[in-house]
């Protein structure tokens, strides 16, 4: 059972490296349209979040802001900070199920991420080297690093609630992966409980406690997220309805309005303004 591939396939990540080398001064990064990742290779760095909380980084560290978030980086000349930074852009928009399942930002010393050491060593080698094609290689390595971090978060059960917590649960993950892989299927709670090898009542209670919503609501939310992604891609609502498990475009449109607050066409108009 692959808990991540379908998520990454639907909401694929694209990284774009924009800084590599020494950093000194103050960088105010606006919310914008992208997430960010900052890798502190050496030296000291200050990170200030949107609420003004300051975190001092005194060893090689990862700073991941998976969604657009205003923040500030600071370093003095004496800090001798060396950074590699990239923007992160997800297909399906910045607020997709994968990004919404993660904290606003994650800060980890690199020594706590042994599974990432191979790709991080390669990334730093490329960033501070002179090989041709390094920009393309760096972008791919940033994308790989984020996937490896997601693996780490699931394996270590680092997130206590939401989809990532469900994926970290051996039983619930089977049901979640089933929904992700087959959104068009007419899932019932009994079906999902069977996949999870749990009783219906126990599964429903455990799912809601861990993931934060009922199985039915999760299924609906997943279908609407896929609908939004496919609308962005220019697919007609008539085709999308069948792909995400609705008997007609009007049935999908009613559910879309109930969940999002506007019709699919109105939602698309707002996205193009």
Write the SSE topology.
Blueprint: H1 5-10, E1 13-23, E2 25-29, E3 35-42, E4 45-48, E5 54-57, E6 61-65, E7 71-75, E8 81-90, H2 97-100, E9 106-109, H3 117-127, H4 134-155, H5 163-168, H6 172-181, H7 189-195, H8 200-211, H9 215-232, H10 237-243, H11 249-260, H12 264-272
Antiparallel strand pairs: 1-8, 2-7, 3-6, 3-8, 4-5, 4-7, 6-9
What does it look like?
The protein has helices at residues 5-10, 97-100, 117-127, 134-155, 163-168, 172-181, 189-195, 200-211, 215-232, 237-243, 249-260, 264-272; strands at residues 13-23, 25-29, 35-42, 45-48, 54-57, 61-65, 71-75, 81-90, 106-109. It has 273 residues and is an alpha+beta fold. The chain has two domains: 5-155, Regulatory protein AraC (Jelly Rolls), CATH 2.60.120; 164-272, Homeodomain-like (Arc Repressor Mutant, subunit A). A five-stranded antiparallel beta sheet has the order 1-8-3-6-9, covered by helices on one side. Strands 2-7-4-5 form a four-stranded antiparallel beta sheet, with no helix packed on it. The longest helix has 22 residues, at 134-155.
């Amino acid at each position: 059972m692959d808990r991540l591939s379908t998520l990454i396939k639907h909401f694929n990540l694209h990284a774009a490296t924009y800084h590599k080398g020494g950093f000194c001064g103050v960088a105010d990064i606006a919310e914008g349209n992208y997430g960010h990742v900052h890798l502190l290779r050496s030296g000291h760095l200050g990170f200030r979040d949107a609420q003004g909380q300051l975190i001092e980084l005194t060893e090689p560290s990862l700073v991941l802001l998976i969604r657009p978030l205003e923040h500030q980086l600071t370093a003095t000349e004496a800090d001798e900070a060396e950074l590699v930074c990239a923007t992160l852009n997800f297909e399906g928009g910045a607020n997709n199920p994968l990004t919404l399942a993660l904290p606003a930002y994650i800060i980890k010393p690199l020594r706590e991420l042994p599974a990432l050491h191979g790709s991080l060593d390669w990334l730093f080698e490329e960033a501070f080297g002179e090989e041709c094609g390094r920009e393309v290689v760096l972008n791919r390595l940033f994308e790989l690093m984020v996937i490896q971090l997601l693996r780490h978060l699931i394996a270590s059960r680092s997130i206590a609630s939401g989809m990532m917590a469900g994926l970290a649960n051996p039983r619930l993950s089977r049901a979640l992966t089933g929904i992700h892989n087959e959104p068009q299927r007419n899932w019932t709670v009994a079906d999902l409980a069977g996949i999870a090898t749990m009783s219906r009542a126990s599964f429903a209670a455990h799912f809601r406690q861990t993931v934060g919503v009922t199985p039915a609501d999760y299924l609906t939310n997943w279908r609407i997220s896929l609908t939004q992604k496919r609308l962005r891609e220019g697919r007609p609502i008539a085709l999308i309805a069948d792909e995400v498990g609705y008997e007609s475009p009007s049935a999908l449109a009613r559910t879309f309005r109930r969940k999002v607050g506007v019709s699919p066409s109105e939602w698309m108009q707002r996205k193009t303004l």
